[in-house]
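Replying to the earlier thread about multi-chain prediction with a worked example.

Input:
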Amino acid sequence: MTIPRAAKTLRRTRIQEEKEEQILEAALDVFSASGFRGSTIDQIAEVAGMSKPNLLYYFRTKEAMHRALIDRVLYTWLEPLRAFDAEGNPEEEIRSYIRRKLEMARDFPRESRLFANEVLQGAPHIEDELKGPLKELVDEKAEVIRAWAKAGKIVKCDPYHLIFSIWSTTQHYADFDVQVRAVLGQEHSGDGRFEDAARFLEQLFIGGLRPDPIGT
Amino acid sequence: MTIPRAAKTLRRTRIQEEKEEQILEAALDVFSASGFRGSTIDQIAEVAGMSKPNLLYYFRTKEAMHRALIDRVLYTWLEPLRAFDAEGNPEEEIRSYIRRKLEMARDFPRESRLFANEVLQGAPHIEDELKGPLKELVDEKAEVIRAWAKAGKIVKCDPYHLIFSIWSTTQHYADFDVQVRAVLGQEHSGDGRFEDAARFLEQLFIGGLRPDPIGT
DNA sequence: GGATAATTTGACCGATTGGTAAACATTACA
DNA sequence: TGTAATGTTTACCAATCGGTCAAATTATCC
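Result:
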């Protein structure tokens, strides 16, 4: 007699490990490309190379798959912001935050699009994460930035909108990739666009945040 | 005997005018919230307050509705960039471009999300518009910016990435609205966030683009 | 007012959706 | 090696999908 579904066993088997990995990889492909509602279990099953019921043996519902995927990716996704160091040199911290975020847009565009799709469609599945862990992390780092501004190390500015602007400019290269490529044309659509973007964004943010020469 | 479908008549009736308007309004609601694949004709019909066959009398397919919607919205959407004036004062042109884009994010968030959804999911329906009219417009304005830089009116920078960064930072407030609200918390989620954003972005871009005091 | 064209709807279609039941196959472990 | 738990598949389900059809209703114009 079979116990209804996977994950009921106390110990995870090797097969469970492998198949869940395989499924989440496929789910990332599909969800990031079509959003939750636009994706189908059949698509994911095909990409994962297994039958639909087999996939549903590991994740009971489409929502469960999405949930597991979000959980797995979210922590990693916030890593660059977490690395933001209050003790470091402001200019260097911001520069390296931009660089890291840009590297993630280049190396993990599917993860970026997964969240973009989710947030764009009203974040029905991650509202709690946004209002909880994300807000707390941003609040903490905003305080760091505010302190830098107060100490005259950078210009006085709204730290939240500064963070938003770094998020949006960097993630743009993952989320709006096809538009960026279309506008730049074939000749500038190689990986060089990320270096150009990095150069421009550092110039913009470092220049834009440099403290006023005359204190006020 | 009925001629198969609407729009076959040479003269558009009053009813056609009204109903098509009504449908596109509903379609904007639904498509912008769920993307093309995630939206259903039934949803749109319900929002539009009419039966599904009636809706399909005016637009033969879901794609036709989407197409009509995109066409109607695209021209308006590019208006701010078109207004970018080569003869104007660079600082003032950039400032007002940011302000205009931010106003559009505030006043027409559905339009912004419509495009965001489309581009995010690979732009399957607007590839031609991106590579054609959009690219041409951006090329033209990039040349203006390049000339300003050459003349020392603004700092030397990549004009394409400058435009991208204005797009991304401003549209962020429409496309990622729920995230912005979640992070800012209830107390800062009123319309005031657009004024704060405007202030910050002007500071960032004007400061970041100010020409080097020492030439070269 | 009546003919004609335009509009609207309920009933329906085949395909696809998320998900299930149960038989079958494989693995782990004593 | 046997057996119980785990893993996989075929066949299927009701609901929903995009879309059609023919009949009924309404507007238009002479």
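Residues 13, 15, 40-42, 52-53, 56, 60-62 of chain B lie near DNA strand D (CB under 10 Å from a C1').

Feel free to reuse this layout for your own posts.
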